TrEMBL record:
<dbReference type="InterPro" id="IPR013499">
    <property type="entry name" value="TopoI_euk"/>
</dbReference>
<keyword id="KW-0799">Topoisomerase</keyword>
<feature type="domain" description="DNA topoisomerase I eukaryotic-type">
    <location>
        <begin position="89"/>
        <end position="466"/>
    </location>
</feature>
<dbReference type="InterPro" id="IPR013500">
    <property type="entry name" value="TopoI_cat_euk"/>
</dbReference>
<dbReference type="InterPro" id="IPR014711">
    <property type="entry name" value="TopoI_cat_a-hlx-sub_euk"/>
</dbReference>
<comment type="function">
    <text>Releases the supercoiling and torsional tension of DNA introduced during the DNA replication and transcription by transiently cleaving and rejoining one strand of the DNA duplex. Introduces a single-strand break via transesterification at the specific target site 5'-[CT]CCTTp site in duplex DNA. The scissile phosphodiester is attacked by the catalytic tyrosine of the enzyme, resulting in the formation of a DNA-(3'-phosphotyrosyl)-enzyme intermediate and the expulsion of a 5'-OH DNA strand. The free DNA strand then undergoes passage around the unbroken strand thus removing DNA supercoils.</text>
</comment>
<comment type="similarity">
    <text>Belongs to the type IB topoisomerase family.</text>
</comment>
<protein>
    <recommendedName>
        <fullName>DNA topoisomerase I</fullName>
        <ecNumber>5.6.2.1</ecNumber>
    </recommendedName>
</protein>
<dbReference type="InterPro" id="IPR014727">
    <property type="entry name" value="TopoI_cat_a/b-sub_euk"/>
</dbReference>
<dbReference type="InterPro" id="IPR013030">
    <property type="entry name" value="DNA_topo_DNA_db_N_dom2"/>
</dbReference>
<dbReference type="Pfam" id="PF01028">
    <property type="entry name" value="Topoisom_I"/>
</dbReference>
<dbReference type="GO" id="GO:0003677">
    <property type="term" value="F:DNA binding"/>
</dbReference>
<dbReference type="InterPro" id="IPR008336">
    <property type="entry name" value="TopoI_DNA-bd_euk"/>
</dbReference>
<dbReference type="GO" id="GO:0005634">
    <property type="term" value="C:nucleus"/>
</dbReference>
<dbReference type="InterPro" id="IPR001631">
    <property type="entry name" value="TopoI"/>
</dbReference>
<dbReference type="Pfam" id="PF14370">
    <property type="entry name" value="Topo_C_assoc"/>
</dbReference>
<keyword id="KW-0413">Isomerase</keyword>
Length: 494
DNA sequence: ACTCTAGACTCAGAAAGATAATA
DNA sequence: TTATTATCTTTCTGAGTCTAGAG
């Protein structure tokens, strides 16, 4: 079925007999009215008087208070998503084959409740029943339902601030730290395997090199036609790379160009070690562009091999490890103890950015980017003018002091000098701000900060350089990383 | 030993909402 | 001061990773 037919079918299924008589073709339908209806509704909500908005807020708070928490092991814990997802049109990311399908409303009859046998079992809404109530303490979810677009299960789970999630997070970083201890051995091993007689091993070793060096994701195989066409390391196809014996003065360059998770483009030109280059040539021999680059490899065999190298090691641990170690190294390289707090935070953001670039965390350029950049430039220009003026004034004051040789005119020179220095510093600050902004234009820092960087590195850095943790982590982040803030002293090393 | 699938969990950027800065 | 705008925070839910178990 074509995507369009699928959409139409999914909408047809919701239509009454009467509607089906009238509506035969979706492309003949005019949706401007319904679109206007929703736009208007949105505007109306925004234009609501203050006290009405206040009321809505209070109601939301009440819901949060009543449904937003659970008791786990005797502790009241915040729930991450305590509402089921509302019905609507499925969008998906990128060129998704199921775009436009109807996502159905979830009814109590769809919902499985998971709680303790001896707990107060939540009541379904009046006149309804739960699909099931179970008491499974081997999983962490509190409720679940099956979603109708991909037929996958959705869960109600705890907030990242919870003890359960925090401990899991800590564990994740501990595994990555263990990798630190054996990574040299593993690197030696895969270099050795580049020369293996077995094709499987060679492919595995080259893939692992990519995962390690470029922080690529594992790349599970996906069901065709069910999702957008994206790939990771193991699912790379011949068409996704180009080999250059020599490019821009560098040897053995691999040019990557593919869509990764969330249809984010990965584009990179990387010089690789010669055996890797030779192997890639070999892997690509007699293949079509659409063929798998690593035809003897999948994530399951790769992870099995990694498990043999270290307990708990999987492909994604390399991402965590390389992200965290990069942060630590960059912080060390970029921070000067004599810098002021603002400069230190700038260094932190630079280090964070290095990681985000490694992990290919991108964002759309903010809507107000150009404008705010212009504003900053205006400020810089104004500051430059002030600076020029101050320079002249200093010159005049110096001449004055030379002529008059009195105390007053001398102290005037000092004053002008101080002003000049102050203005110069302000200009510097503005300029670094501008560079920082420009470099950050399309880089998303949040994902790595929240998911890849061992928070203890940041906490230790804060303590070491006298930067308040609040400057690095906002309230939510401090709650999520409470375990690390508690645990790490300035001596912590990843 | 393998493939396939279901299940459970982490990780992902956009959009909405709240707050701070600025005119 | 207040209204507007820029920026930061929170919410949302889709898209991955990885494991276990059946055949």
């Amino acid at each position: 079925m074509s995507p369009f037919q699928m959409k139409f079918t999914s909408i047809m299924m919701e239509m009454t007999v009467e509607e089906k008589k009238i509506i035969k073709r979706l492309d003949k339908c005019d949706f401007t009215e319904i679109h206007k209806y929703f736009v208007d509704k949105n505007e109306a909500r925004k234009a609501l008087p203050k006290e009405e908005k206040q009321k809505l807020k209070e109601e939301a708070d009440r819901l949060q208070e009543e449904f937003g928490y659970c008791i786990l092991d005797g502790h009241r814990e915040k729930i991450g998503n305590f509402k089921t997802e509302p019905p609507g049109l499925f969008r998906g990311r990128g060129d998704h084959p199921k775009m436009g399908m109807l996502k159905k409303r979830i009814m109590p009859e769809d919902v499985i409740i998971n709680c303790s046998r001896d707990s107060k079992i939540p009541e379904p809404p009046p006149g309804h029943k739960w699909k099931e109530v179970r008491f499974d303490n081997t999983v962490t979810w509190l409720a679940s339902w099956t979603e109708n677009i991909q037929n996958s299960i959705k869960y109600i789970m705890l907030n990242p601030s919870s003890k359960l999630k925090g401990e899991k997070d800590w564990q994740k970083y501990e595994v990555a730290r263990r990798l630190k201890g054996v990574v040299d051995k593993i690197r030696f091993q895969y270099r050795f395997d580049w020369k293996s007689r077995e094709m499987r091993k060679r492919q595995r070793a080259v893939a692992l090199y990519f995962i390690d060096k470029l922080a690529l994701r594992a790349g599970n195989e996906k069901e065709e036609g069910e999702t957008a066409d994206t790939v990771g390391c193991c699912s790379l196809r011949v068409e996704h790379i180009q080999l250059h014996h020599e490019l821009d003065g560098q040897e053995h360059v691999v040019e990557f160009d593919f869509l990764g998770k969330d249809c984010i483009r990965y584009y990179n030109k990387v010089p690789v070690e010669k055996p890797v280059f030779k192997n890639l040539q070999l892997f690509m021999e007699n293949k079509d562009p659409g063929d798998d680059l690593f035809d003897r490899l999948n994530t399951s065999t790769l992870n099995k091999h990694l498990q043999d190298l270290m307990d708990g090691l999987t492909a994604k641990v390399f991402r965590t490890y390389n992200a965290s170690i990069t942060l630590q190294e960059q912080l060390k390289a970029l921070t000067s103890a004599e810098d002021n707090i603002a400069a230190k935070i700038l260094s932190y953001n630079r280090a964070n950015r290095a990681v985000a670039i490694l992990c290919n965390h991108q964002r759309a350029t903010p809507k107000t980017f150009e404008k705010s950049m212009q504003n900053l430039q205006t400020k810089i220009d104004a500051k430059k003018e002030q600076l020029a003026m101050a320079k002249q004034e200093l010159k005049r004051a110096k001449a004055d002091a030379k002529a008059r040789k009195d105390v007053k005119s001398k102290s005037n020179v000092d004053k002008k000098k101080k002003l000049l220095a102050k203005l110069e510093e302000q200009l510097m600050k503005l300029c670094t701000q501008a560079t920082d902004k420009e470099e950050n234009k399309q880089v998303a820092l949040g994902t790595s900060k929240l998911n890849y960087l061992d928070p203890r590195i940041s906490v230790a850095w804060c303590k070491k350089f006298g930067v308040p943790v609040e400057k690095i982590y906002n309230k939510t982040q401090r709650e999520k990383f409470a375990w690390a803030i508690d645990m790490a002293d300035e001596e912590f090393e990843f």
